[in-house]
Fold this protein.
Amino acid sequence: MWADAWTDRDEWYETMTRLRDQGKIRWIGLSEAGPETLRRAAAVHPITALQTEYSLWSRDPESDVLPTCRELGIGFVAYSPLSRGFLTAQIRRFEDLADDDFRRLSPRFQGENFAKNLDLVRRVEEIAARKRCRPSQLALAWVLSRGDDIVPIPGTKRRPYLEENVAAVDVRLTRDDVAALDAVFPPDVAAGARYPEALMRSIAP
């Protein structure tokens, strides 16, 4: 559940605990919650997992969210590990997105941000070519390399892409590979925010 800014969190935590005690739910998880919210929730009931965006171009969780999860024993589910498809190297122009595609509203897919982020994707393609794998597989392998407690959940609608994603587990990254990717993708390198400003404000601290 997205722990948004307008939720009465204390009441929510207590309600989830009651549902757990009644056997109506088995585990409790949160989405897009910061360290403060994680600690408040864990003080009421153990939190099984946190779902948060995490990828080569969304490394914000590394500063405080991921360390907090590890301190509290909370599993980390990384959504959008392919950066909403950008890191597949299949998106070349803003105009390629359908008129009703949510990504058209994302600052990272707009104007100069799009061009700057596309340059980053080209660097991924170069490294992937040396590894003889797809850019998407390289991006997933990087997320998998960040720890056994991190589970990426790439989305796809087609079986070939699903099989391609699964094959990322066979891509072995050396220290040099990781260093090369870290050099291209240091934290905050992506141009533009993850979501429109109003939605970013709703993420719980």
Observations:
- The chain has eight helices and four strands.
